[in-house]
Design brief:
Length: about 220
């Protein structure tokens, strides 16, 4: 009788343990398919102007369903003609993040020193100075990676710069039109022999109203 009772208790106990193991597999906090996903996006506000300032927004996120235990590194090297004025960060409470500028303000890095939880993100608002001779178009690229480079992403943001010869039609010439019409259609409109408007290749004539000389 005692042996039967013992066997029965062990059988029930084993069934409970087996059920508990199954429940752990079904409802565990870290399912077998869980994975972290590190991403970066980059945008800017409007067009930038030579001699002025512009603002970039860089967002780093873990859009996966598992935390990123390794440290992450965000790197942004600015294109020619742009330098950092200010840098501010919005981040979750508890995320340890260290940001610093590089090479006299020509870029920056942000390194996390604590896990980036699933669904968490941080944003860098970057104000830059635009040189008076900056190119009319630049592309700013940011890259983020885990320490072991197993997770890696980058984002590029083409930016239009206005001012100076960037405002001309042909992007650099001082002429209104990108072609030279001199010598193609000589045109003159003479009011008098002492007050006339002469195009190259035309001839003056007294009191003519309008004339077109084909080359």
């Amino acid at each position: 009788m005692s042996m039967y009772t013992l066997r029965r208790w062990m059988s029930v106990r084993g069934g409970v343990l087996g059920l508990s193991s199954a429940l752990l597999l079904i409802t565990g906090t870290t399912p077998a398919y869980a994975a972290a996903s590190l991403s970066v996006t980059k945008t800017h506000e409007g067009n930038f102007a030579r001699g002025g300032q512009g603002i970039y927004h860089i967002k780093v996120a873990n859009s996966g369903d598992e935390l990123i235990a390794d440290f992450t590194l965000l790197t942004d090297t600015l294109p020619s003609g742009l330098t950092i004025e200010t840098l501010s960060v919005t981040k979750p409470v508890g995320l340890l993040l260290a940001c610093s500028s590089l090479n006299g303000g020509t870029g920056f890095t942000c390194e996390s020193h604590s896990p980036l939880l699933a669904g968490d993100s941080y944003t860098v608002d970057l104000t830059v100075n635009i040189a008076t001779d900056a190119p009319c178009t630049v592309t700013n690229t940011a890259t983020v990676s885990s320490v072991d480079a197993a997770l890696l992403d980058s984002a590029s943001d083409p930016t239009t710069i206005t001012g100076g010869d960037c405002n001309s039609v042909d992007g650099g010439s001082s002429s209104i039109l990108p072609v030279n019409l001199s010598g193609i259609v000589p045109l003159f409109n003479n009011i008098s022999t002492n007050n006339n408007l002469l195009s190259p290749g035309a001839t003056n004539a007294t009191n003519q109203k309008l004339g077109i000389n084909a080359p």
